[in-house]
Every structure is written in C-alpha cells, then in structure tokens.
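Revision sheet: structure tokens.
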Amino acid sequence: EGPPGRATIDAAETAYLCDTVNRYFTHTIAPEDVVWSYAGIRPLYDDHAADASAVTRDYVLDLDAEGGQPPLLSVFGGKITTYRKLAEHALEKLGPTFPNAREAWTAKQPLPGGDFTDFDALLAESIVKRPGLPPSLLHRLARAYGTDTAALLGDAQDVSAL
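Predicted:
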C-alpha cells in the first residue's frame, strides 16, 4: 500500500525468506541477521480483472508511433523469466522503425552456465571431482547452474564446506 517509492519488505516476508533459505543450509539465519533488503513493484497491465490477484502477469507491449513521431514502447507486466522473449517481441514491434536491425538471436544463445551439450556427462564429471558431495545435490546444482556449478562450489569437497 502507498506510493511505489516507499515499497519495503515487511517482517512476515523477511521471516518467510529466512525460513526458506534455512531449509537448505546448515548455518541458519534469522530476520535480525538481515543487513539490507530490497522491495520492488511490478507494473501490471490493467485487464479489468475484478480481483487484483487475477490480473495477468504476462507482459503487454503498447507501441505509440503516430504522426511520424519517434516511437514510444511501453512494457506492462512481465516476469524476469520471460525477459528474452519479451525483448524479442519488443524488437518485433519496433522493427518498422529500425529496418536494418539484426534478426532475433537470443533463442539460440545459451544462458550463463548453459554452454554444454551432454548433461549426463557434465553431472558425471562433477560427481567424480566431488565425491564428498551428495550426487542429488550435484544434480540439482548442475540443473540450475550448468557449467557454472564449479565456480559456485569453489573448493568445497563436502557438505560441511558449503
């Protein structure tokens, strides 16, 4: 509630996040351990839903380019997980203004850590290099971080080093 510039995380949200993190680490944290926080506002498109929780979380692009004026592209909604598709759609909308722009390329570009072709080989190598870590943990990390798993784990060879 209130002006967007005053958005803050409340105590219940902080406690929820600490509890969530504590399920995965031996060393637990409490809200009083938090030294900085951030809260943001996501602009949602008014689709006239009766309930605010039912408003679409998909993005909506609105291009205003009338009368030979430079185009103004407004982006409403969206999620961080759809940023690549959103960027491609934005460039599609702006295409007539920039006829010499490159074709979309992000769909073929791997995300950080995604520069491998054989997941099973990547996982097997990780298990051989870190026999003290549970294979299930290495599997989960390899799925999330791919080739960046090694950098994430650093020198850790067992769970106590995490």
